[in-house]
């Protein structure tokens, strides 16, 4: 895929992976629009990279999604929709009764799964009208093997992975040229996992690998440990599960 002179929308783009991706896409000569819930963070990103267009929007809010679509349409549309926004809730032991289990699961599913489908649906015809267009859905290494620390998060990413594969097939069936990429990050060194002591991949390196995958039209982009875990899980699933769920992780759900 040609990654020059494209207009790219990145959800959850005010910090972390989203902001680094915005920076690298700008460097390649693209127009980049980022969204996020936190206006202050968006404004800070704009100060850092003045070329950015910022739009405050909550991925969990259906009305925000419609308003975002209308604003993007007024700006001339996009060529790439990068669904990067994602949330996770603090780990709890699912075997101990708590109303927080369902509350947390609904919140994670609303952002990580339903929010992606909502935006894809809104922008689908716009993307179809472009000469070269793409959707990037961010799943996770945890869509391969679940984490006891992030049970519902893992489930949302597995659901999104299956949806992504189906969406790709459906578009092929109707002869659409829109490309659908699935991005599987490993544990990346962001503020979201700052307290974790596990091995983390540098953000800049991760985004570089994403861009290489897009340029090579690699529709499933496994980066770092996601590659090795994928193959290990096929031949030794118990070992793969143990690698993801270390003994010390269980202390958080006692």
Q: Secondary-structure map with pairings?
A:
Blueprint: E1 7-10, H1 16-27, E2 31-36, H2 39-48, E3 53-56, H3 62-74, E4 80-83, H4 100-128, E5 134-138, H5 151-173, E6 179-184, H6 203-215, E7 220-222, H7 225-235, H8 237-244
Parallel strand pairs: 1-2, 1-4, 2-3, 4-5, 5-6, 6-7
Helix pairs in contact: 1-6, 3-4, 4-5, 7-8
Runs in which pLDDT lies below 50 for 5 or more consecutive residues are none
Largest sheet: 7 strands, parallel
CATH superfamily: NAD(P)-binding Rossmann-like Domain
Widest sheet: strand ordering: 3-2-1-4-5-6-7
Q: For the terminal residues, how far apart are their CA atoms? A: 47 Å
SSE series: EHEHEHEHEHEHEHH
The Rg value, from CA coordinates, equals: 18 Å
| Binned strand content | 5-15%
Mean pLDDT: 95
What is the overall silhouette?
A: globular
Counting structural domains, the number is 1
Count of extended strands: 7
Please tell me about this protein's structure.
With 254 residues, the chain is an alpha/beta fold. The chain has one domain: 3-Layer(aba) Sandwich (Rossmann fold), CATH 3.40.50. The protein has helices at residues 16-27, 39-48, 62-74, 100-128, 151-173, 203-215, 225-235, 237-244; strands at 7-10, 31-36, 53-56, 80-83, 134-138, 179-184, 220-222. It has a seven-stranded parallel beta sheet with strand order 3-2-1-4-5-6-7, sandwiched between helices. Strand 6 (179-184), helix 6 (203-215) and strand 7 form a beta-alpha-beta unit. The longest helix has 29 residues, at 100-128. The radius of gyration is 18 Å and the shape is globular. The termini are far apart.
């Amino acid at each position: 895929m040609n990654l020059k002179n494209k207009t790219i929308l990145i959800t959850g783009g005010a910090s972390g992976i989203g902001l680094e991706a915005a920076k690298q896409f700008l460097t390649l000569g693209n127009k980049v629009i980022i969204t996020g819930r936190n206006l202050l963070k968006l404004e800070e990103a704009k100060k850092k990279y003045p070329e950015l267009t910022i739009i405050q929007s909550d991925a969990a809010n259906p009305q925000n999604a419609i308003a975002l679509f209308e604003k993007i349409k007024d700006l001339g549309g996009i060529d790439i929709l990068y669904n990067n926004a994602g949330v996770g809730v603090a780990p709890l032991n699912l075997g101990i009764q708590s109303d927080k289990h369902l509350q947390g699961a609904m919140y994670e599913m609303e952002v990580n799964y339903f929010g992606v489908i909502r935006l894809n649906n809104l922008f689908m015809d716009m993307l179809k009208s472009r000469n070269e267009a793409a959707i990037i859905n961010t799943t996770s290494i945890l869509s391969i093997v679940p984490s006891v620390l992030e049970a519902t998060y893992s489930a949302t990413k597995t659901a999104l992975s299956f949806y992504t594969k189906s969406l790709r097939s459906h578009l092929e069936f109707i002869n659409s040229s829109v490309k659908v990429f699935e991005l599987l990050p490993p544990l990346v060194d962001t503020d979201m996992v700052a307290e974790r002591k596990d091995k983390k991949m540098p953000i800049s390196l991760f985004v570089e690998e994403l861009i290489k995958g897009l340029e090579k039209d690699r529709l499933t982009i496994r980066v770092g440990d996601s590659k090795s875990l994928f193959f290990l899980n096929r031949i030794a699933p118990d070992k793969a599960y143990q690698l993801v769920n270390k003994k010390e992780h269980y202390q958080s759900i006692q």
